[in-house]
Specification:
Blueprint (H helix, E strand, L loop, with lengths): L4 H13 L4 E2 L5 E7 L4 E9 L2 E7 L4 E9 L2 E7 L4 E9 L2 E9 L2 E9 L2 E9 L2 E9 L2 E7 L4 E3 L1
Parallel strand pairs: 1-3, 2-4, 3-5, 4-6, 5-7, 6-8, 7-9, 8-10, 9-11, 10-12, 11-13
C-alpha cells in the first residue's frame, strides 16, 4: 500500500520533532493507543495539566499534537488507513475533539486563547477538515459524511 503524501509529511515531522512517543511536563498526560501497522503519533506538551488521548486503529495513520498552556484537552480517534491529523493548542482550557472514520482523511486544527471548543468528525474517504480558533469561548463544529469533502472553519 502506498503511503499518502500528507501522511508522509506528518510522519517526517513527527520523526524530526521528537525521538520518543511523548514529551511532557510531569503534570501533563498523554495516552497513545495504536492497533495496526505503520502508525505514528506524537504528543508534545508544555505547561500544566494538559491531556491528550490519541487512538489509532488501522494502517499508516499519523497524528501530531502540540499543547502549551494549562488544562488543554485533545481527544483524537482515527479509524481506517492513511489518515492524518496535525493540531496545536496554546492557552488555557481549550478542548479539541477529532474523529476520522475511513481512509486518507486529513484534519488540521489550531487553537489559541481560552475556553475554545472544536468538534470535527469525518466519515468517508479523502476528506479534509481544518479549523483555526483564536480568542475566548469560540465554538466550531465540522461534520463530514461522504467522500472528497473539504471544510475550513
Amino acid at each position: 500500500m502506498k503511503m499518502p503524501t500528507t501522511v508522509k509529511a506528518i510522519t517526517a515531522a513527527i520523526t524530526l520533532a521528537i525521538s520518543s512517543t511523548t514529551l511532557a511536563d510531569t503534570s501533563d498526560e498523554a495516552l497513545i493507543d495504536q492497533t495496526g501497522n505503520l502508525n505514528s503519533a506524537a504528543a508534545m506538551q508544555f505547561g500544566d495539566r494538559n491531556f491528550t488521548d490519541i487512538d489509532q486503529d488501522g494502517d499508516l495513520n499519523a497524528a501530531m499534537l502540540l499543547q502549551s498552556g494549562e488544562e488543554n484537552v485533545a481527544l483524537i480517534d482515527q479509524n481506517g488507513d492513511g489518515n492524518g491529523l496535525i493540531s496545536s493548542q496554546e492557552g488555557v482550557t481549550n478542548l479539541m475533539e477529532a474523529t476520522q472514520n475511513g481512509n486518507d482523511n486529513m484534519i488540521a486544527t489550531a487553537q489559541s486563547g481560552e475556553s475554545n471548543y472544536q468538534l470535527i468528525e469525518t466519515d468517508g474517504d479523502g476528506n479534509y477538515a481544518g479549523g483555526i480558533q483564536s480568542g475566548t469561548e469560540n465554538t466550531s463544529y465540522i461534520d463530514q459524511d461522504g467522500n472528497l469533502n473539504s471544510a475550513q472553519d
